[in-house]
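Obj.: predict assembly geometry.
Materials: sequence records (below).
Method: joint structure prediction, all chains together.
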Amino acid sequence: MSLHPEVIRLLIFLVGIIAFAALNAAYLVWLERKEAGHIQRRIGPKEVGPFGLLQPLADGIKLMTKQLIVPAGVDPILFKIAPILVMVPAIMSFVTIPYGENLVARNIDIGLLMIFAFASVNVLGLLLGAWGSRNKYAVISAARVVSQNVAYEIPMLITVVTLVMITGTMNLHEIVMQQQGGFWNWNILNLAASPLMPVAFLIFFVCMLAETNRAPFDMAEAESELIAGAFTEYPGMGFGVFFMGEYANIVIGASVATILFLGGWQCPFGLFPGVHWFLLKMYFLIFTVIWIRWTYPRTTFYSLLNLSWKILIPISFFNLILTSAMIKVF
Amino acid sequence: MEQQATVDLLYVAAFFLGGLGFAIGPFVIAKLLAARSTRNTQQKTEQLIECGMVPIGDAWIRFGIVYYLYALMFVAFAVDILFLFPVALVYKSQTLVGALYAFVEILIFVGILSLIIIYAWKKGVFKWERKIYNPR
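Observations (raw structure tokens):
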């Protein structure tokens, strides 16, 4: 019996993308620790392997050999299902992210909508895990994570609606193809469509930080106030899977920002487009995300919510109106 | 077209299963490798964490979430933004309605939507003062 070529392609992409996600989760932790070290005038991990490059392996072995405890009194089903609920949608979002001209698992027509649909499940996982933990810190974190993600989903979606208005498609491949040429054709500099496009990118980026619970918006996992927030009760691998899911979400967020605003795999000068440009832009965004984490202190929860409702949402609404006016009226 | 949608679904389903495997796999490995029991002299391995003390009271109690009003606003927004997606998708096409007509419709829709924020702002939802609930 021979397999259908489509099935073989599917399996290759599935294995490749899971390997990509796992490798990223492992080495983004290394990057985070290294970068944090250098920002704080330390060296960071250096003992395990050259430049500490084998550190993720050591971390992995440590996590795997830790006892799996389900504390007494937790809701066992919610407690166990939560890390899986964070991880699965993250992997599913990778289906339609095009890393190169032909390097995409499946070019789905409503890919953009699909990614945001899956991304919103992430909150559910954190909420269930935190509530199921029956820990006071985790329960406080549950309330916070929901209101934070809910608040930042709106400006993000409005920005995406604005972008869909300009591109007229939700197919990620086509969105990248429309940004062909040099960097002046990228959506971030598409000033003809809307003079506020760089601001829209900034809004998207800030919302991405908040949606992935990264500092300065890491209210869900505020170490100094809530121990580890939603993850407080999770031992060993439960914590590890949560973290892999979180890093996978950061990779997805940076990828989507690259596709929507920075021209995906297109070269800034119109030369040699390819997957290397995509990875370069994506890792630059991820580097910035980590950079921000170690530069700014955590905000208070009040200013976090008000930043979204008082500043980001009105501006993104204004951008929406402006864009629709630029398309139809002028 | 029909077949393409089926293949789309096949891909998503395969990635669902793959993700499930990737999420559950580490737990299986940990189950095989990890210690099954520890010395546990004080019988406190399964105690919930409260910075070392024996936890005082239950965590599943009612506590005041002052920001629940934001959730109410979100409900209004989320649905409406979902309605905006199909509109945005066809907004550029010339054939459906007149240019100005389409713009004015968007303007009305978004205008009414922003009234939510203006209303909440006026009502003081965004002001964070200590709210004291007096039962009397």
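Conclusions so far: The longest helix of chain B spans residues 2-33.
To do: check interface contacts against the pulldown list.
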